[in-house]
Amino acid sequence: MTRTILVTGGGTGIGKAVAARFAASDAVVHITGRRKDVLVSAAADLGSSVRPLVCDATDPEQVTAALDSLDGPIDVLVNNAGGNTDFDLPEQDGLAGVLAHWRANLDANLISAVLTTTAARDKLAEGGSVIHIGSIAADQGAGSYGAAKAGLASWNVDLAKQLGARKITANVVSPGYIRETEFFRDKLPAERAEQLIDATSTGRAGIPADIAETVYFLASAGARHITGQTFGVNGGAHPTR
Ligand code: NDP
């Protein structure tokens, strides 16, 4: 059966790896993002089953239009769009600056997933999957970015309860440090990268495929009783009981 997959932020990094993983099985994969050239190039790399769709996941009108343009049902929704917007925003003094930084991270990492999931809700296939990309930062602290990812995981608990009657699962995959993405905007100092690797038990950075494989499993037939959960993929950098 050909599945239909929607991956937000699917033009680069983790989202592109998720799109590639599903495209390698029998699936049509729609990838979204704000930069058309990046999406078109990613789709060209990944093959004809991957379709670019320009959409800012924080903009209600764009999200509505994007979802309206897709024929349902959607078997798997991956809310991957996001990142730490503090890397992009200039420093600003006073409460106005605090507000701008917090709103940007909440929009990018929490509201984006809420809007996309809400717009997709009626099109989600019975027995399908919703998977959000969270972050180790939700547990280790990283200002408004960590708080936004913690909020995403909290909201997912509610979402899993709501979608359960339709046998749709909802889970969070929470990466540690992942290389080969645009996340750090080339601003991560080498010593900090070393510290992040030293904190793992595996002695290496994660790669986008580590996350893609976990997402793929959570959308598989073997994972139909797994819902409302958060899964760390961090090489042991944040162990749990
Ligand atoms: P990237 O910056 O490579 O990927 C983020 C993608 O999201 C980009 O393709 C970007 O495209 C898209 N995006 C950002 N904002 C929006 C928006 N408003 N609407 C639509 N698309 C958007 O980094 P990663 O692959 O690392 O990030 C993927 C996810 O993984 C993020 O949620 C991030 O927080 C999370 N994560 C990453 C970690 C890491 O170490 N790399 C660690 C923990 C979590 P465009 O700019 O064109 O819109």
Care to describe what's here?
The structure is a single chain. With 241 residues, this protein is an alpha/beta fold. It has helices spanning 13-23, 36-46, 60-68, 94-120, 137-140, 143-163, 190-198, 208-218, and strands at 3-7, 27-33, 50-54, 74-79, 124-133, 169-175, 230-233. The chain has a single domain, classed as Rossmann fold. It is 43% helix and 18% strand. It has a seven-stranded parallel beta sheet, sandwiched between helices. The longest helix has 27 residues, at 94-120. The chain is globular. The site of NADPH dihydro-nicotinamide-adenine-dinucleotide phosphate has 29 residues, from helix 1, strand 2 and helix 4. Residues 3-139 form the Ketoreductase domain.
Task: Please write out the topology.
Layout: E1 3-7, H1 13-23, E2 27-33, H2 36-46, E3 50-54, H3 60-68, E4 74-79, H4 94-120, E5 124-133, H5 137-140, H6 143-163, E6 169-175, H7 190-198, H8 208-218, E7 230-233
Helix pairs in contact: 1-8, 3-4, 4-6
Bound molecules: NADPH dihydro-nicotinamide-adenine-dinucleotide phosphate (NDP).
What is the CA-based Rg, rounded? 17 Å
- Low-confidence parts, pLDDT < 50 over ≥5 residues? none
Distance between the termini: 38 Å
Using DSSP, what is the number of strands?
7
Secondary structure category: alpha/beta
Strands of the widest sheet, in order across it, are 3-2-1-4-5-6-7
Average residue-wise pLDDT? 97
CATH architecture label name: 3-Layer(aba) Sandwich
- Into how many domains do the coordinates divide? 1
Give the overall shape, derived from the CA principal axes. globular
Unique bound compounds:
NADPH dihydro-nicotinamide-adenine-dinucleotide phosphate
**What amount of the residues lies in strands?**
15-25%
Summarize the main sheet: 7 strands, parallel
CATH topology: Rossmann fold
What's the CATH first level?
Answer: Alpha Beta
| Number of contiguous helices | 8
Q: What is the percent of helical residues?
A: 40-55%
CATH fourth-tier homologous superfamily: NAD(P)-binding Rossmann-like Domain
